[in-house]
Amino acid sequence: MVLPIVAYGDPVLRKVGKEIEKDFPKLDELIENMWETMYNASGVGLAAPQIGLALRLFIVDATPFAEDDELTEAEQNRIKGFKKVFINAKIEEETGSEWNFNEGCLSIPDIREDVSRKDTITITYVDENFKKNTETFDGVLARVIQHEYDHIQGILFTDKLSSLKKRLLKGRLANVSKGKVNVEYRMRFPNMKKGR
Protein backbone atom coordinates (compact mmCIF):
# COMPACT_ATOMS: atom_id res chain seq x y z
CA MET A 1 0.00 0.00 0.00
CA VAL A 2 1.30 3.44 -0.94
CA LEU A 3 1.37 5.65 2.14
CA PRO A 4 1.43 9.46 2.26
CA ILE A 5 4.87 10.96 2.83
CA VAL A 6 5.09 13.35 5.76
CA ALA A 7 6.08 16.90 4.77
CA TYR A 8 8.65 19.23 6.28
CA GLY A 9 7.29 20.88 9.42
CA ASP A 10 5.67 17.75 10.87
CA PRO A 11 7.01 17.11 14.41
CA VAL A 12 7.56 13.38 13.68
CA LEU A 13 10.49 14.31 11.43
CA ARG A 14 12.25 15.78 14.47
CA LYS A 15 11.86 12.74 16.73
CA VAL A 16 14.66 10.26 17.40
CA GLY A 17 13.31 6.88 16.30
CA LYS A 18 12.58 4.10 18.80
CA GLU A 19 14.28 0.71 18.53
CA ILE A 20 12.23 -2.04 16.89
CA GLU A 21 11.76 -5.35 18.70
CA LYS A 22 11.89 -8.66 16.84
CA ASP A 23 8.17 -9.27 17.52
CA PHE A 24 7.11 -5.84 16.15
CA PRO A 25 3.58 -6.38 14.76
CA LYS A 26 3.28 -6.63 10.96
CA LEU A 27 6.89 -5.54 10.35
CA ASP A 28 7.00 -7.34 6.96
CA GLU A 29 3.88 -5.49 5.86
CA LEU A 30 5.31 -2.15 7.04
CA ILE A 31 8.54 -2.73 5.09
CA GLU A 32 6.61 -3.75 1.97
CA ASN A 33 4.46 -0.60 2.23
CA MET A 34 7.61 1.49 2.57
CA TRP A 35 9.11 -0.03 -0.62
CA GLU A 36 5.86 0.67 -2.51
CA THR A 37 5.71 4.23 -1.16
CA MET A 38 9.35 4.95 -2.02
CA TYR A 39 9.12 3.57 -5.57
CA ASN A 40 5.83 5.42 -6.15
CA ALA A 41 7.65 8.66 -5.29
CA SER A 42 10.77 7.75 -7.36
CA GLY A 43 12.95 7.82 -4.24
CA VAL A 44 16.20 6.00 -3.46
CA GLY A 45 15.63 5.89 0.29
CA LEU A 46 12.81 6.22 2.80
CA ALA A 47 12.83 6.30 6.59
CA ALA A 48 9.95 5.39 8.92
CA PRO A 49 9.57 8.99 10.22
CA GLN A 50 8.75 10.01 6.65
CA ILE A 51 5.59 7.90 6.83
CA GLY A 52 4.77 9.21 10.30
CA LEU A 53 6.43 6.53 12.47
CA ALA A 54 9.24 7.47 14.88
CA LEU A 55 11.02 4.13 14.46
CA ARG A 56 14.65 3.18 13.73
CA LEU A 57 13.89 1.77 10.28
CA PHE A 58 14.91 2.89 6.81
CA ILE A 59 15.24 1.36 3.36
CA VAL A 60 17.63 2.10 0.51
CA ASP A 61 17.63 1.16 -3.18
CA ALA A 62 20.53 3.04 -4.74
CA THR A 63 20.11 1.45 -8.19
CA PRO A 64 19.08 4.73 -9.92
CA PHE A 65 22.55 6.14 -9.11
CA ALA A 66 24.12 3.35 -11.18
CA GLU A 67 23.15 5.39 -14.26
CA ASP A 68 25.23 8.38 -13.10
CA ASP A 69 27.92 9.05 -15.73
CA GLU A 70 30.07 10.89 -13.18
CA LEU A 71 30.67 7.68 -11.24
CA THR A 72 33.39 5.19 -12.13
CA GLU A 73 32.28 1.94 -13.73
CA ALA A 74 33.35 0.07 -10.58
CA GLU A 75 31.14 2.28 -8.40
CA GLN A 76 28.22 1.97 -10.84
CA ASN A 77 28.51 -1.83 -10.63
CA ARG A 78 28.65 -1.75 -6.84
CA ILE A 79 25.53 0.40 -6.66
CA LYS A 80 23.53 -1.54 -9.27
CA GLY A 81 21.00 -3.69 -7.40
CA PHE A 82 21.98 -2.31 -3.96
CA LYS A 83 18.76 -2.76 -1.99
CA LYS A 84 18.73 -3.06 1.80
CA VAL A 85 16.57 -2.73 4.89
CA PHE A 86 18.24 -1.12 7.93
CA ILE A 87 16.65 -1.71 11.36
CA ASN A 88 18.02 -0.26 14.62
CA ALA A 89 20.99 1.15 12.71
CA LYS A 90 23.88 2.87 14.45
CA ILE A 91 26.68 4.59 12.57
CA GLU A 92 29.81 3.50 14.43
CA GLU A 93 32.30 5.67 12.54
CA GLU A 94 32.47 8.32 9.81
CA THR A 95 35.87 8.75 8.17
CA GLY A 96 37.55 10.09 5.05
CA SER A 97 37.34 13.45 3.38
CA GLU A 98 34.23 15.60 3.43
CA TRP A 99 32.65 16.03 0.01
CA ASN A 100 29.66 17.89 -1.35
CA PHE A 101 26.79 16.15 -3.08
CA ASN A 102 23.47 17.58 -4.21
CA GLU A 103 20.76 16.13 -1.95
CA GLY A 104 17.00 16.23 -1.99
CA CYS A 105 14.33 14.65 0.19
CA LEU A 106 10.85 13.26 -0.46
CA SER A 107 9.63 15.15 2.64
CA ILE A 108 11.05 18.42 1.26
CA PRO A 109 10.06 18.40 -2.43
CA ASP A 110 11.44 20.92 -4.93
CA ILE A 111 14.44 21.80 -2.76
CA ARG A 112 17.92 20.45 -3.51
CA GLU A 113 21.18 21.66 -2.00
CA ASP A 114 24.82 20.61 -1.77
CA VAL A 115 25.50 18.90 1.55
CA SER A 116 28.96 18.08 2.90
CA ARG A 117 29.43 14.63 4.47
CA LYS A 118 32.30 12.26 5.25
CA ASP A 119 33.15 9.79 2.50
CA THR A 120 33.12 6.50 4.48
CA ILE A 121 30.88 5.07 7.20
CA THR A 122 30.80 1.91 9.29
CA ILE A 123 27.28 1.01 10.36
CA THR A 124 25.78 -1.71 12.55
CA TYR A 125 22.18 -2.75 11.90
CA VAL A 126 19.83 -5.71 11.69
CA ASP A 127 18.11 -6.62 8.44
CA GLU A 128 14.46 -7.62 7.93
CA ASN A 129 15.29 -11.13 9.29
CA PHE A 130 16.93 -9.56 12.38
CA LYS A 131 20.35 -10.78 11.28
CA LYS A 132 23.02 -8.46 12.72
CA ASN A 133 25.42 -6.81 10.26
CA THR A 134 28.38 -4.46 10.55
CA GLU A 135 29.40 -3.04 7.18
CA THR A 136 31.50 -0.25 5.75
CA PHE A 137 30.24 1.83 2.82
CA ASP A 138 31.78 4.71 0.92
CA GLY A 139 30.94 7.14 -1.85
CA VAL A 140 27.33 7.42 -2.99
CA LEU A 141 26.18 4.44 -0.91
CA ALA A 142 27.55 6.04 2.27
CA ARG A 143 25.84 9.30 1.27
CA VAL A 144 22.38 7.76 0.81
CA ILE A 145 22.68 5.77 4.05
CA GLN A 146 23.83 8.86 6.00
CA HIS A 147 20.85 10.84 4.68
CA GLU A 148 18.36 8.14 5.73
CA TYR A 149 20.14 7.54 9.04
CA ASP A 150 19.76 11.25 9.82
CA HIS A 151 15.97 10.80 9.51
CA ILE A 152 15.88 8.23 12.33
CA GLN A 153 17.94 10.69 14.40
CA GLY A 154 15.43 13.52 13.81
CA ILE A 155 17.81 15.38 11.47
CA LEU A 156 17.02 16.75 7.99
CA PHE A 157 19.52 17.57 5.25
CA THR A 158 18.55 21.24 5.52
CA ASP A 159 19.98 21.22 9.08
CA LYS A 160 23.43 20.73 7.56
CA LEU A 161 23.29 23.90 5.47
CA SER A 162 24.92 27.22 6.34
CA SER A 163 22.82 29.76 8.26
CA LEU A 164 22.75 31.94 5.13
CA LYS A 165 21.38 29.08 2.99
CA LYS A 166 18.78 28.32 5.68
CA ARG A 167 17.63 31.95 5.69
CA LEU A 168 17.39 31.93 1.87
CA LEU A 169 15.28 28.75 1.97
CA LYS A 170 13.00 29.82 4.83
CA GLY A 171 10.10 30.90 2.60
CA ARG A 172 10.30 27.83 0.38
CA LEU A 173 10.41 25.52 3.41
CA ALA A 174 7.36 27.30 4.87
CA ASN A 175 5.54 26.69 1.57
CA VAL A 176 6.34 22.95 1.77
CA SER A 177 4.87 22.73 5.28
CA LYS A 178 1.73 24.57 4.08
CA GLY A 179 1.27 22.18 1.17
CA LYS A 180 2.17 24.78 -1.47
CA VAL A 181 4.15 22.30 -3.60
CA ASN A 182 3.44 20.39 -6.75
CA VAL A 183 4.27 16.71 -6.28
CA GLU A 184 3.34 13.53 -8.10
CA TYR A 185 2.95 11.47 -4.91
CA ARG A 186 0.71 11.53 -1.83
CA MET A 187 1.87 13.76 1.00
CA ARG A 188 0.64 14.59 4.47
CA PHE A 189 1.15 18.20 5.50
CA PRO A 190 1.41 19.38 9.12
CA ASN A 191 -1.72 21.52 8.95
CA MET A 192 -3.89 18.93 7.20
CA LYS A 193 -5.59 15.85 8.61
CA LYS A 194 -5.42 13.72 5.45
CA GLY A 195 -2.82 13.25 2.69
CA ARG A 196 -3.64 14.47 -0.76
TrEMBL record:
Its cofactor is Fe(2+). Coiled coil: none annotated. Gene3D superfamilies: Peptide deformylase. The keyword Hydrolase applies. InterPro entries: Peptide_deformylase (IPR023635), Peptide_deformylase_sf (IPR036821). Keywords: Hydrolase, Iron, Metal-binding, Protein biosynthesis. Fe cation binds at residues 105, 147, 151. It comes from the Bacteria. Binds 1 Fe(2+) ion. GO terms for biological process: translation. The active site is at residue 148. GO terms for molecular function: metal ion binding; peptide deformylase activity. Its EC number is 3.5.1.88. It catalyses: N-terminal N-formyl-L-methionyl-[peptide] + H2O = N-terminal L-methionyl-[peptide] + formate. NCBIfam families: pept_deformyl, PRK00150.1-3. PANTHER family: PEPTIDE DEFORMYLASE (PTHR10458:SF22). Belongs to the polypeptide deformylase family. Removes the formyl group from the N-terminal Met of newly synthesized proteins. Requires at least a dipeptide for an efficient rate of reaction. N-terminal L-methionine is a prerequisite for activity but the enzyme has broad specificity at other positions. This is Peptide deformylase. It comes from Maribacter luteus.
